[in-house]
Amino acid sequence: MTDVDLRPLGDSDLRVSRLCLGGNVFGWTADEPASFRVLDDYVAGGGTFIDTADSYTAWIEGNSGGESETVIGRWLADRGRPEGLVLATKVGRHPGFRGLSAANVHAAARASLDRLGLESVDLYYAHIDDPETPLEESARAFSELVDAGLVRRIGLSNHAPERIRAWLDICADRGLHAPVCVQPHYSLLERGAEDALVPLAQERGLALLPYFGLARGFLTGKYRPGGPAVDSPRAGGASALLEDARALRVLDALDTVAGRLGVAQAAVALAWLADRPSVASVLASARGPEQLADLLSVQSLVLDPDSTALLTEASAP
């Protein structure tokens, strides 16, 4: 494993690499052999943080959810768990385990651990908000998993800032294990998190772990006005951005910085995001080693002030 700087997840003892490998493609656009190659190369490149969810890849016809966890579990069984590897999964969207009721959270956690072949998982997320379940019930259920040794730390994903604050306050009032990180939608083209979530994270010591940091592939630079069609399940959404003047300004800025530094546009986009306040690690997925190679340089890529300013200005809402 290559030596890289590791960052803490909030005030926890978990330390992670700047690039978090997303497992949403495992069992979807990456079959098991390709997934194993990506996982091998990620670890060899200094990666220490793998993210998945129990609902991956239930959206594929014939799949029932848990396929990504199963692939990762088989890889761990075959390769052995690398030292320092942090594994995260989520609950709330699996077809058989929807929502954040206490019974559902406990059952889903055990099902995930079975698929992963683990006795405990490092980070367990509430994948979505569940307004039908009292927050205290959900917060207590997650805390009980920590007490039982099934989960080391707790995270929240797709929760509004006011709901995150309420969850944290319940934990403080009831003496429960509190979330240490939040996974928001955040990128050069989606900066809404800066309005309320980033200040909340700074106030409460939360780490941010953005997803869609490449805007569904648009910020890789492979989508161009008048360019060839891109073979990707997300091509429709990414191609639509070619009609957005702000998106094109960002693309031009990425081209400038990437050319100056001699790295891929994707690495530049993720490096900008990795250096935003409270961000500990940025998620990105790769269907194969070739895609991953463009991402790995973010582990050590630190943008100069002029490059950062150019991207920040170009992406201003």
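the 2nd protein, sequnce then structure:
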Amino acid sequence: MKRDGIVRIRRPALAAAVTLIGSGAFAADLAERMAPAEAPVDIAAQSPWQIRVRGLGVITNDSGYVDAIPGSGLTYSNTVVPELDISYFFTDNIAAELILGTTYANVNAADSIAGLGKVGKTWLLPPTLTLQYHFTDFGAFKPYVGAGVNYTLFYNQSGSGDFTDLDVKNKVGAALQVGFDYMIDQHWGVNFDVKKLFLEPEWKVNYQGTPLTGKAKLDPWLVGAGITYRF
């Protein structure tokens, strides 16, 4: 309605306009509130690959024998070596791990043949593949267990003194594992890991020209600590 050159809006019309504007704002606000929240981005989970570098203590079981000599025994040296492992996560909980490292063992006569001294030395490469279950309910602390298979290759073998032609046979064995990562941030962490390898290869050697055979019951513990990096 226009009166004295001034446009006047009737109160019912003004109220309707305000109501419409308010309804539109409320609907827009409601739609924004009900929109699904954006999922948080877990950067560490963007890649399934993980590596670790460890210092590894190889602690052998001092057991074994020579077939033809009753009461004979064997002992082996323990070592500390560097080790690399590569893990692939199929899910947050399931992963496969391959460890790579090499070490040596001095083989010594023991028990009834202890007086014969050192039998020889062999290097071994024990690649071990395990399937792991990772527990994910403890925040930065991430324990795991695993089981798998080991195939140990023996190389650069040599006898000592009256022993010659030392030959320890390559062997397949089982492996068990337990350990944990403690993640400092999304990529870096520290690791502690223990594996038990069941490794009892056949072996042979010549002693003053006489061939001897037997079994070396190494069954080592692999105790490692190091750094974890998750890509």
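The first helix runs from residue 11 to 34. Confidence is low (pLDDT under 50) at residues 13-18, 37-41.
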